[in-house]
Structure formats: structure tokens, C-alpha cells
Amino acid sequence: MDFSAQLTKFKFFIASLTKGKSTYENKLRLQSSSDNFQTIIDDFTFDSIHEGWNYAEYTGLTPAKAFRLVNNESDGCADVETSGPDFPVTFTGIEMIADSSPTVTCSVVVDHSYSYTALPDVTYTQTQNIWLTNISPRYGSVEGGTFVEFTIEKNAAYPLSGTPVEVYIDDVECTGAVFVPSSSPGISDKVTCTTGARVGLYGDPTLHIMVANQEVALNGLIFKYVSLWSAASTWGASFAPVDGESLAVPRGLNLLVDVPSTPILNLVLIDGGSIIFACEADDSSSCSNHPSTRSTKTFDAHYIFINDGAFEVGTEDDPYECQLTITLHGAKADAQIPIFGNKGIFVRYGTLDLHGKARQPSWTTISASFDPASGGKTLILD
């Protein structure tokens, strides 16, 4: 079966502009092709380049089988990092079957390491596709009782009766699941339910939504069960950590910090689990208003070590627009974590997400050199 991809985002990393901006701006292009570059489409020309991550976002690009960066300048891609452990060139998009037919039949094979078992073919019908576009809220307590609203889209020609409806999160039934059809054009269908209690730790979160015996495509969205910092059950009906103590967050535990401040912790070890800060869980509902009315939090520690886990203060799609101050405590002579050091946030095979309110422009250039010795003491960027 033939496949192609439709890009939605492309980013690449430049550690140092040794060749100068003029080598890249309005010359570096992203191209695509579906016939081994016999036919070439110039998808995007980068009119502005800077050190660090460079992003390009797209809508409506034609699907293609191959993509490449091209620059006709000599060594025109010399500064673009193309290898290393941090994936300095990243494509984001959707892989799709290169077939415009409304119905496609796919063969299914189960791999048992040394043997293969063929299953009956699966037929994909475009008009019967249902997909998820939003989850609100994105988190809910492991104690259950969170009312969740799932927004779904479907082909306009597909009649969806809405029954039966089933929702399971981490293999726990989300009770009272109902289908809420759109009340007017332009308003999406929804599925609502109330989470049940989840006991113990769980691996990677799972979500299954069935509407009228049709599985809803998740579109990369997920709901997470979280243990609230403020809940006694999170600490085994004991006490939350106090000043000087260390905290370990194992795999399967998502710890949501819903308190205004934490004690000054020693080591915070996120060992496969996650620590999450989310505006939607804060006691203030006015995070998007004036800064003086936003919820404010503080988080204090000597070491924060992320080992195959996650420390999330907002995401790219859901930025954290409240106020958070992370303070790292320590001195030069304090004990060091081998390789990493002390008084820091250290990441080993993990994810550090820090996404706040978007500000534009996020960076700029000046048209001439600025020399304080010439008498000017203030640089004003308009």
C-alpha cells in the first residue's frame, strides 16, 4: 500500500549562524515531491532565520511522499543541525494512504515475533469516520467524579444515531456517557460522561470512545487521571512532603500541583511519572485576564531530575497562562548529581514542557549596532 504525508509543522535547529543570515533568508526552501523529485513543489521559503529553533506551520499543503530542505547557496545548509539525540529536524503531520477513493481495504497481520497471523481485511469508509477534536478538562482526579466533555467531528453525510455510547479511560468506565448531537450548523457533536475512580498506578494513559458501535479516532488527544497534591489519598492518607524532604514520582503517577505553594523540597525525582501544573485546575478562573487577577503558584526545590518522565507547565497546544515561580535552592558547594551537577532542572530521556502565554514578536533584530559608549543609555524596541 502506498503512503504519503501532509505536513502541519516543520522545525529545525541552528546552533550557530556561522554562514550568516544572508545565506539562508529568502533562499532556504522546504520542497516536497511524490515522484522522487521529478516534479517539485516549493512549499515554504524561510524569510527569517535565527539561531535556535526555527518553525514553519502550514495549512492546506498538498500531501507528498518526500520532503527536503534546499538552498542554492554554497554550503547553504551547513548550519542546520541534522543529527544528534534531540532530533534537531522535526516533521509534524499526518501519514495517510495515497488513495483518494472513499473506501479503502487494508490487510491486517499480527506479528508474533517469529510468526505472522493474517486477520480479516479491514475496510475504511471515509464517510463513516469520527474523530476527536477537544477534551475538556484534560485532567481529572483518580478519585473520580470529573465531568468530561469530548468534542467530536464527523462527515456531514454520516447519520450518527448516538447510541449506544461507551467511554473507557485507563480501562475504567466513564459513567453516564451520552451523545449530545449538534443543535445547529457550526456546532460540533459532543460526548459527555463522569469519570469513575481509578485504583493504583497505571502505565501510559488510554482512552476508548465508542458511539453507535463506531470507534472514535483520538487524533492524538488524551485524558489523564491525576493525583492531586492537595488530596490526602495521594500521600497514602499521611502527610504531604515538608521542607527538606525528597519526592519521587514513579511511572503511572501523574501528580497535579493544585496548591498555591510547596515546601522547599530537596530532590524531586520524576522517575517515569509526571508533575503537572494546569490553569484549569487552579482556584482562579481568571487566568486569561489581567496578571494581577491570575492564580499565582510557587514551586521550590534543590534538584529536579526528570528521568524518562515529564514536568509540564502548559503545552504548546494548551499554554499555562497563570503565574508560576520555580525557585531552585542551593550553593556551589552542595552535593552534585553525577554528570548533571546541582541546583538545576535535569532531563534524562524525559520531557520538560514550559509553555506560557504567547507573545509576539518573540524575538527581533536591530537595524544598526548599539554602542552604550556613544552616549545612548536606553535601547527602545518599538
Q: Can you count the helices?
A: 0
Q: Kindly, what is the distance between the CA atoms of the first and last residues, rounded to a whole number of angstroms? A: 54 Å
Question: Portion of residues in helices?
Answer: under 10%
Residue runs with pLDDT of under 50 for 5 or more positions: 282-292
Rg calculated over all Cα atoms: 25 Å
Percent strand equals 35-45%
Biggest β-sheet description: 6 strands, parallel
Shape, principal axes of CA atoms: globular
Structural class: mainly beta
Question: What is the total domain count?
Answer: 3
Mean pLDDT: 84
Give the spatial strand order of the biggest sheet: 10-18-20-22-24-27
Order of helical and strand elements: EEEEEEEEEEEEEEEEEEEEEEEEEEE
Number of strands: 27
Considering the chains and any ligands shown, give keywords for the structure.
Immunoglobulin-like; 382 residues
Please characterize this protein's 3D structure.
The protein has 382 residues and is an all-beta fold. The chain has three domains: 3-97, Jelly Rolls, CATH 2.60.120.260; 127-225, Immunoglobulin-like (Sandwich); 229-354, no CATH class. 0% of the residues lie in helices and 43% in strands. It has no helices and 27 strands. It has strands at 3-14, 29-33, 41-45, 52-57, 66-70, 89-97, 103-111, 116-125, 130-136, 139-141, 147-154, 165-169, 172-173, 175-180, 189-194, 207-211, 214-215, 224-228, 247-250, 254-256, 261-271, 274-277, 296-307, 310-313, 323-328, 344-348, 351-354. The strands form seven sheets. A six-stranded parallel sheet has the order 10-18-20-22-24-27, with no helix packed on it. Strands 19, 21, 23, 25 and 26 form a five-stranded parallel sheet that branches. A hairpin with a 4-residue loop joins strand 7 (103-111) and strand 8. The model is unreliable at 282-292 (pLDDT under 50).
